[in-house]
Design brief:
349 residues; Immunoglobulin-like; five-stranded mixed β-sheet; 6% helix; 38% strand; elongated; exocytosis; repeat; SYTL1-5_C2B
Length: 349
Amino acid sequence: ESDTASEISFQFNRHKKTPSTGSHSSDMASVSSVSGSVLSVYSGDFGSVDAQGTVEFALDYDEKNREFQVHVSQCKDLAVVDEKKVRSDPYVKTYLLPDKARMGKRKTSVKKRTVNPVYNEVLRYKIEKMVLLIQKLNLSVWHNDPLGRNSFLGEIEIDLASWDWSNRKLNWYPLKPRSLSAVNGVDHRGVMSLSIKYVPPGSLGKWPKNPPSGEVHIWVKDVKDLLQLRPSGVDSFVKCYVLPDTSKKSYQKTRVVKRDTNPVFNHTIVYDGFHTEDLKDACVELTVWDHEKLTNHFLGGIRLGLGTGLSYGISVDWMDSTQEEVAFWQEMMLAANEWIEGLLPLRSL
């Protein structure tokens, strides 16, 4: 069925509250964070102010150092967030899209108590020009809140393929409201074809008890219509974790398929150590990446679970499966020892 197979043990160390303290055991420390988690461009936006004002910046590409530079000069007439104190504490944040990962974010310093901040800072990206030209620059302005309740003040998005690279001068641009497509995540990242199966403990009926613990089988078949980050295509591979376990024991990946936006992986992974009750609290995270020497670029992913927002009684941001993903996982839970086939759209996690 597949050209490669991986089998690893999956141990949760089930977590129970103790009557004396009511606290979770210390080995849950890693549960609250997701290894390599992907942030939304608009994460942390608690504000409701209307976008206004302008931003002055310039773009340049340093051929010698293979570096993209965003010279952020200043902003004028930004919206006031704290009306009582008539103040905003603005900073500028940039992303290269479609890569919304933490590695693609840059930001300036925060300027206190001003709607006309002056920065004169250069935000730098080490990136090949060929890759840069098939991306977009998202530049947004935010009010910084001490409690992390940051407010969106406006943005501008530039298609770098059509940018005039001879223009290195500082220019003013009006700040615009958020684009609905980005807010709602309406971006096509491709579709993954896969099958999953759950084998309960002892269900194969052989002696000794076979298998001694439950197993989850994940068969990654192929992906269609990946984002093309360079003219020659993409060199893609798939990562797999079973959350909340983000250790090396949980991490598995496929081989790299080169120069193909429709890669065929045909890779099967088996996780043992599962008990049936773990299926309510676990989440299989499959992410697709473009492989490069210096850094890998996130292309999209899926999360298979019940999407309850909770794992072993703890609130976690990665238990966020879509309706399609939840239905796929539930079908597997109800049909022990049967392969369940699915075709799921990749998304920004």
